[in-house]
Amino acid sequence: MMDTDLAIVGAGPAGMAAAIEAGRLGLKTVLLDEQPRVGGQIYRNIGQPSMADPRILGPDYYAGRTLADDFIDSGCRYLPNTQVWQLDRDGRVYYSREGKAASLQARQVMIANGAQERPFPIPGWTLPGVMTAGSAQILLKTPGLAADGAVFAGCGPLLYLVVWQYLQAGVKVAAVLDTTPAANYRQALVALDGVLRGVGYLWKGLKLLRDIRAAGIPFVRGVTELAASAEDGVLSRVTYQAGGRQQQLETEQLFLHQGVVPSVNLAMASGCEHEWSEQQLCWQPVLDDWGQSTQPHIRIIGDGGGIGGAVAAALKGRLAVQQLAVQQLAHTLGRQTLAERDEGARALRRQLKREMAFRRFIDLLYRPSDALRLPQQDEVLVCRCEEVSLGEIRRAVNQGCMGPNQLKSFTRCGMGPCQGRQCGLVVSELMARLQGQTVEQGGYYRLRAPIKPLTLNELASLVQPPEPGLRE
């Protein structure tokens, strides 16, 4: 006996859109999410924005309000503050909520847990006062906090957006240190056809940069050799190379960003195959055009299946439900015909094609340099949790360590609370380079459940009654 037709993990654009479409087709759906409110990272806290002035976060953020309202009206069972820590290949979902663990059985599971920021392993990146640009945005969207006089460093649309949001909030930004390699501008020219089809995004980006410059915020291009240093254990200055000169800025807050990558831990631990994307320099799940993974009961939607942005994520969620409804559920129950699915899918695919047209240009333009994507000095930490440095990894390889999984035995790298989320990408590339292999040959950590920290008390509570309305 099934508890639900469809279980969705993640309440961002993809998860909400999938739940709305499932409700339209009459499918019994449960959505589980770690956050107290829907929205994911892009639309975080959209139901109760922390900023009274909507101009601060901008129209793209508030576009999520309609999606969130439609989700609330969809009839989907919603479990906030819920941490999914295991997903079986047959569709059983294990989770913790309010200090207790429970499980539910679904015919199909959709993983919609989105993306995370790429690691930025420079000297000093683990110092107090150094965070990601995404963290700066979370502080704006949730408690409405900002760091006055911060330095923003890196490249990519999110970096410029957060600086622009700081500007709208009237918060001083000390400088923007742009690390986009000069060669990227030339290499991105091969994707100009996508620029023409996504010209709206181009104008949005140009407007952000124009407003930043008009506000008089120092904007330094061609930054290399970025490093953070401390005084009394806390960030005090940022040093960098630009224009052939070594320079420095005094600051107590540094926000780093060089793109986002799919969150892969849950999908990998569930046995879904992944492959290395040379275009986006990250691991991506192997999916068909409908989001179906290599596990028959698991689909992956949104940015977790490949970075495309909020609108594309929502479209991917709707498409996956369209196919799921026909293959597994609604077609057999007479709720939707193949012809109806294909007709609805054509319109969605046209929209998705338009949304994704600009993606290759963005990936080429803001491809992070090797020198900033991978640590260069032996003392730089790679694994923050276990404090494993580049030098220790080199020594492990010299002693015969063969790959990321064996590296755990040599150094404990990747065995901390984050379970490789902050070091996995870096370790994959480092180990491949040190051993003269491709990243595909070197592979990634072998991930196992639970993918999030789980107390014995929570585990023991699995024998207790499940959530009301859901079987154990």
Task: Offer a concise description of the structure.
The protein is 35% helix and 22% strand. By secondary structure, it is α/β, with parallel strands linked by helices.
What is the CATH class name of the largest domain? Alpha Beta
The CATH topology of the largest domain is: FAD/NAD(P)-binding domain
What is the CATH H-level superfamily of the largest domain? FAD/NAD(P)-binding domain
Radius of gyration: 22 Å
The proportion of strand residues reads 15-25%
Number of helices, where a helix is a run of at least 4 consecutive DSSP H or I residues: 18
Helical residues, percent? 25-40%
Number of domains: 3
Which blocks of ≥5 consecutive residues have pLDDT under 50? Answer: none
Mass-distribution shape: globular
From the coordinates shown, what is the CATH architecture of the largest domain? 3-Layer(bba) Sandwich
Mean pLDDT: 92
What structural category characterises the helix and strand content? Answer: alpha/beta
What does this 3D model show about the protein?
With 472 residues, the chain is of the alpha/beta class. The chain folds into 3 domains: 188 residues, FAD/NAD(P)-binding domain; 140 residues, FAD/NAD(P)-binding domain; 66 residues, Orthogonal Bundle (Arc Repressor Mutant, subunit A). The protein is built from 18 helices and 21 strands. The strands form 6 sheets. Strands 1, 2, 3, 4, 5, 6 and 19 form a 7-stranded mixed beta sheet that branches. Helix 1 runs parallel beside helix 10. The longest helix has 19 residues. It is globular and about 65 Å long. It starts with a strand and ends in a 12-residue tail after the last helix. This is FAD/NAD(P)-binding oxidoreductase. One of its GO terms (molecular function) is oxidoreductase activity.
